[in-house]
Amino acid sequence: MGGEGFFTPLQVLPSLLTVRVVECDMTSLKGLSECPALTMLEVSSCRNITSAADIEGCASLQVFLLCNSGFSNLFGLGGCPRLWRVDISRCWGLTAVDGLVGSESLEELSAANSSLSTLDGLNTCPKLRYVNVSCCWDISSTAGLRGCPSLEVLLADESGLTSLDGLGECPNLREVSVRKTQCLDNAYGLMGAPSLTTFNAELSDLKSINGLGECPHLAKVNVKHCKFLTDVAPLESCRSLVSLEAAQCNLAQLGSLRECRRLVYLNVSYSTLIKDCAGLCHLVSLKCLNLRTCGVESIDFVRHMPELEEIDIAKCQGIQTIGALRFCQKLISFDAHDTRIDSVDPLAQCPLLESVNVTNCNQVGDLTVLHGLEHLKYISAVKCGIPPEEHPRHRKLLSHVIKLTL
């Protein structure tokens, strides 16, 4: 289809709700602003349509989807009083969102994989609650969102952000994701964010999480694979912290977490510099603990963890005894493959135990002590110290186990 005023005849369709303009050579959206019931407009792969000016004042328009088109600005959208969702993903000609400044009804803005270089003015949108600028490499700052009154979620994965300026002043911000963001090395901009509950910086080059400690409701932190991060001390004041995912970081100590009494999930696997976890004895709510390949030499601290359900100490060569686990009456899963533990006897005191992995534990010579655990379903004991002639006896005494591998 072609022509400049193709949409003008549509004015006589008072019930028209949706218009999709896909892969056409039109140059204008003229006439659509006069469609009284139009609620959704999609413009996709139309390189000759470069402006939204022709839909300014579209009284019923609620959703505007713009993908891979030739738009250079969004002027006109601000005049659509009911517009609440705008998607400008994969629009490489757009560098700013000036046309949305002050939009009274705008709630969601998706601009992933676009050429946006600034978010200036979005903090004047009183209802804006969701912003997605993932894979926007030209955006370096969040200053344009400073104090945004309704903002709840910011997704900026694989973006060019170098700072999180102004986000700490967003009163309703709950979730921030900056996964794989290589230029961001700190979280200072989030300092004092009163409603923040979730922060995800997995696979980023984050060096410091200073500022997160001043977020009173922070519950979930993911800094997995942040190889430059050496310290989680700023989290010591996060009394609402429930989950910390910090596998494959460069952490050396965890003592600062002793005050995080609500912590339920802790993963610091592959942090080989961690030697002492005694400070974790205060984590009385912990249910899942992953210390795989850490330098830990003792797990005596777990005797103070009555809620512990899962523990992974695989490849922790310094651990030889697991006596403290007899106090963990709710333990369900135990993984100690490739360790030097010499006995699984304490596990017989864990009535809810379902899974045991002692593969390559060549000092473990007997598992029959576990025969009274009625919930036990899986045992992996390949290449442990059980003599081959003892295998039949083990299979008989542990016949209730669904999968027994010797």
Tell me about this structure.
Keywords: Leucine-rich repeat, Repeat. InterPro entries: Leu-rich_rpt_Cys-con_subtyp, LRR_dom_sf, SDS22/Internalin_LRR. This protein is mainly β. The chain has a domain at 320-405: Ribonuclease Inhibitor (Leucine-rich repeat, LRR (right-handed beta-alpha superhelix)). Helices cover 2% and strands 15% of the residues. It has an 18-stranded parallel β-sheet, with no helix packed on it. Strand 17, helix 1 and strand 18 (403-405) form a beta-alpha-beta unit. The longest helix is centred in the last third of the chain and has 7 residues, at 391-397. The model has no long low-confidence stretch (mean pLDDT 92).
Key terms:
406 residues; mainly beta; Leucine-rich repeat, LRR (right-handed beta-alpha superhelix); 18-stranded parallel beta sheet; 2% helix
Topology:
Layout: E1 18-22, E2 40-44, E3 63-67, E4 85-87, E5 108-110, E6 130-132, E7 153-155, E8 175-177, E9 198-200, E10 220-222, E11 243-245, E12 265-267, E13 288-290, E14 310-312, E15 333-335, E16 355-357, E17 378-380, H1 391-397, E18 403-405
Parallel strand pairs: 1-2, 2-3, 3-4, 4-5, 5-6, 6-7, 7-8, 8-9, 9-10, 10-11, 11-12, 12-13, 13-14, 14-15, 15-16, 16-17, 17-18
Assembly category: single chain
End-to-end distance: 70 Å
Annotated CATH architecture of the domain at 320-405: Alpha-Beta Horseshoe
- Kindly report the average pLDDT value: 92
- The shape, in one word, is elongated
Please give the number of β-strands. Answer: 18
Strand content: 5-15%
Low-confidence stretches: none
**SS element count, helices:** 1
The name CATH uses for the topology of the domain at 320-405 is: Leucine-rich repeat, LRR (right-handed beta-alpha superhelix)
Which CATH first-tier class of the domain at 320-405 would you pick? Alpha Beta
Gyration radius (Cα, Å) is 28 Å
